[in-house]
Amino acid sequence: MSHLQAQANYRPWPYAPRPFQDEAFGSWFGRVASRYRMTVEMAWEINGLGQLPALTNVGWILFAPLDNTALDKLAALARVEAKTIGSIQTPVSWMVARRRLPFCFRCLVLNPMDVSAPYWKRAWLNPDITDCCEHGEQLETAPPSVLRRAGNTEQLISNVGKYRRRMEKRQARRGR
C-alpha cells in the first residue's frame, strides 16, 4: 500500500504529536498513546496496525522496526511522511535484551524544542552508548522492570523519575 492509498483509507488522528528527529520510535508512539490516555498496546490494537512486533525485555521503548504497511498507515494517521517515521526506528542490531537501559535525565525531562513533550532519545537505545552527547556526562541507567511497567511515554518518564528518587534515597542512607 502506498502512502497516498493509506491517506485515503485512514482517518487521521485529531491530534498527532510530531516525532522529534532524534526520538526513538517507541517514545513517539508512546507519546501518541499518552495523548489518548491509553497504553501503547491498546493504541497499536485500536489503530489496526496488525500484530504488535516482538519486544525485548525492556518493552515497547525498544520497538522493533516496522514493515512498510505499518509505516504507511502510521504516516497517514499522524499526517507525516512515512520516511519521517522510518528515520526514528530502532536499528535491528540494537534489538537485544538489556540488563539496564541508559538515559540522560536532564535530556529526558527538558526538551528544548517543546518543554511540554519530554521524550526518549533514539541514541540511548544504542547498546554501545555510555555518555550523553549533549552534556558529555556518563548516562544513568534503569532496569528493564522500571521501563516495562509503563504503559506509555508519560508513565515511562514518571517511572524513571520515581526510580531515580528511590536510588538517591538509598545512596543517601548508605552514605550516612
Automatic annotation (TrEMBL):
Pfam families referenced in this protein's UniProt entry, alphabetically: TniQ
Describe the location of the TniQ domain by residue ranges. Answer: 14-139
UniProt superkingdom: Bacteria
Q: What is this protein called?
A: TniQ family protein
